[in-house]
Hints:
The structure holds three protein chains of three kinds. Chain A contains 13 helices and two strands.
Amino acid sequence: MLKVLLSRLGQAALVMLVVSAISFVMFRFVGDPVSSMSRENASVEEKAELRRSLGLDQPVVVQYGRFLARTLSGDLGISYRNQRPVTQLIAERLPATLELVLVATILSLALGIPLGVLCALKPNGVAARLVQAFSLIGISTPTFVTGIVLILVFAVSLGWLPSFGRGQVVDLGWWSTGFLTLSGLKALILPGITLALYQLTLIMRLVRAEMIDVLSSDYIRFARARGLPRRYIHFHLALRNALMPVITVTGLQIGSLIAFAIVTETVFQWPGMGLLFIQAVSFVDIPVMAAYLLFVGLLFVLINTVVDILYAVVDPRLRARSA
Amino acid sequence: MKTAASSPRPMSPSLMTRIGAPISVMIAGALALLIVGCALMASWIAPYDPTDLASFELINAELPPAFTAEGDSHFLLGTDNQGRDLLSAMLYGARVSIAIGGGAVLVAATLGVILGLLAGYFGGKVDAVIMRIADVILSFPTILLALLVSGIARALFPGAATAEWAPVILICAIAIHEWVQYARTVRAATMVETAKDYVRAAKVIGLPPSRIMLRHILPNVMSPVLVIATINLAAAVLTEATLSFLGVGMPPTYPSLGTLIRIGNEFVFSGIWWIALFPALTLVILVLAVNIVGDWLRDRFNPKLRVKR
Amino acid sequence: MKPRLALCLSVAIGALMGFAAEAKTLRWSSPTDLTTLDPYAHTESFTTSMLHHVFDPLVRRSRNLELEPALAVSWKTVRPDTWRFELRRNVKFHNGNPFTADDVVASINRLLDPGARARGNISTVTGAQKVDDYTVDITTKGPYPLLLNDLAGVYIMDKEWMEANDALKPGNIATGVTTAASSTAVGTGPFKVESYKPDAGTVFVVNPDWWDKTQHNLDRIEFKPIKSDATRVAALLSGELDLIAPAPLQDLQRISGSSGFKVIEEPSLRLIMLSLSFRPELKAMPGQKNPQLDLKVRQAMWHAIDFEAIKKRVMRDRSRNTGTLVAPPVPGYSKDNDKPFGYDLDKAKKLLTEAGYPNGFKTKLNCPNDRYINDEQICVAIASMWTKVGIQTELQTESRATYFPRQDRHEFDVSMVGWATLPPMDGFSVLSSLLTEQKEGYGGSNSGAYSNPQIEELTRKAAVELDEEKRRAMLVEALKVARDTVAYIPVHQQPVAWAIRDGVEVPQFPDEYVRLWFATVK
Lengths: 323, 309, 522
């Protein structure tokens, strides 16, 4: 068991090393921070001096070495743009993105599971067909179009919901939350829906597929043959088993949601990490971009590793194979 | 990490002619073919050539569609902010979108199939290296990776944002993530095939590995690849649109559907709705139609793939 | 425990919001955000304009943009290179500390530190010396006519606060030093910073002890940056904002048509122009002589652009076409220079034929797509017009993040430039940055390598000329040479267009600054 754990962790570390190298080397070559930072009538000499003082004239390997050493000690550098530690900037933005992702995940589970069950139980009913059609439209519409349409309808035409930002937030220690005020909750609705739509369709389809699979399995047939009540079969036996992969996929998808939040946050001006990333790209703020990439990479590796280890714990066959 | 283990089935030769498809799928298929057909023939059927800078006049800018009160009969769907005929721009734009989406799928599938075959056939170190690369790639979502690749390309090659190079960059940016799906599927299928008697026999009589892989294994693992490709085409077209919308896709002088939506988005509040609406509708209908066909194909020929994305 | 805490907090917030509704609050948005609160750690005019609400300079721009006393009440030159400033008494910083000469000296020294990113803003200043508690001498490298203009952008910080917070030197990315000054601002200005969250918003509250007579009626300013044009307009129209600056040109008609909102506008100081490459070869035609070196070709390029159409369609009649490189309020402007060549296709073709290019030639046009008003659209239109006379133009637009570095590396055949002569607000900056060769600190933005001996000479003379009338004549003469030789092709003067809710009064300024200490809300 320990062996499995160690090998998984080793793999994770290796992947992270590669990710850090990629993140550094790639970002080192994107754009030129010097020009974005100097004033519009700066002289050539001033620019050269700025380049020197940023260490950009050093060999790339030296720059990467410094980068790695600093990263391992938890120091992700200082944003070129805000002149504040990147760790601090990310910590400030983390709550906004995580709350948005949380709302999107809850929305997609709360709607996706019942709808998926509905489609599985009555695959040819009118409701199921409508839901199916809706889900196809859902995955065929780009996130940005959905966002713009929602703003046009609910913010501009009807004036019910805010079109941008987080509303009033409350600070609980370093965590700023939008859950405690009315304006904060209202502000979460439109971006939450926009981000949830794709995830919702995914979960709905997954639940449907799993349910159909489970419903046609032997033990369900057996349970039916025994004359157990329908409700018990559907929701106690079948749904429970169908939910296992749903939970796994939901976990695995959290990283994707955080990345997809880039588009949602851009459309709704949501002050989260995605917006931080996009603005860092346009300002060529290398430390922020590198940190974001590392962070998302780390999150994925963590989630994947945890899921893998859990699988190994739960599934004796896998355990045997890895050992 | 997990792989989609699916037992490949030889694809039925009468796939397209079989009347097993429900009417909705046939309509979707027809619509998809119509849009793709029109887009491919854009240079013959479009009233103007929107990529020719000398062909449009600023003075014609923002004319509404011909069926509205102030419309001009020369421009069926109106003109954009530069005076380009919107219908022509959309036809050419759809062509660009489809070419990039299709190109990305082609590149990703080719790369994925080759790497998947190698990994599955040889196993061991080859397998480990390829799959580790796949893991690293998978630690980043498509959109993030694509943003990165196009950003880097633009920084490294000054010409990357021009009409000639942007499509190449976009294809690479999308394909760099998507090949993993093919590789994983093909690897699993190849492993199953490699263990079968006919491959063992081929090895015993001393056929070269390349011949065994291409002539014997490949035909037997192709059916899931085709299904994934159909679904991926829709996803690739959407990714291209998102990148163009975020401003790192096709340039305004050679717009794709995503670029047209980006331009049009700036005008939606000023009552110039058509620049954004028509391209957005075309994009959604195209992607929807391809998705419907892809879904049906998947359910029909490879139900196991359904769970994986 | 936890739910109770949450309840308490929400009650407290409710009370706060109730209070805020009573107070006069101005909520506004712009596409960019403050990059830092440290006035010496950035070079962006937007951040400078925002920080002016918190800090005061020694001299400032009045409502008519004239220089007027602020923290200094009077000044005189005691030697050609030394200016003596008499300081205002009874001024207090936001933390209650009194303002004295020590603060001025500490501030100037902080800005002169090699780690200060904005030190170029006072490149001719050599130091500041305290004479007594309310008198300061500032020395320059030789005679320098524009010192007051430069000082209008130098905000005075509190020495005691800097000492207490280890912020006497500005933050420096290279050494990894950040200071409290990048997230806290203690000035003498009309507003205090209540909270600053990058990209989420900044809140200012009124400083009741400001030294100057208050002209605004605000208690609170809530600023939120919104990058997307569409979202910004939507937020205004749905009542979430009182002011957006700038307002997108294509939405002005809709905004002024909506009841309860109006558009205010005025010409900006910023001129948009095309920079032409004067290098031996064009990137578009390697191995051949650069056609743009021929004056007739450059004239043809100017005549071939229908600036009226661009003004009408792209700028919706909100811009002003121009023939010179500075805006009318700026020293160096003259009506005689300000004559566009005019749109004349036949003449353009004739000039091209005379120059030996009857079938035109190839060039590349590069533009930013997120810097100037409708920059990308203008360039598509120009590329289309040039292509029609036979100048096959390959257009590339990109984000300013990659565009400006490439312009600095001289990679462009033709490229877009916007120049507002800020911060000095003087035509000399066009000469010293755009029209001179890159040497001796001059020509920093002359990316096309334009060079003219007459302008070189005039620039060096004007740099040390203390007689204002003579100096202006030199600027006018140099700008006439620039026009006659088609050093740049001027496109137009940008508008400053804002949109406000009814009941809000905000004055506009051609330098595009937002000065809310002149604003009132109902």
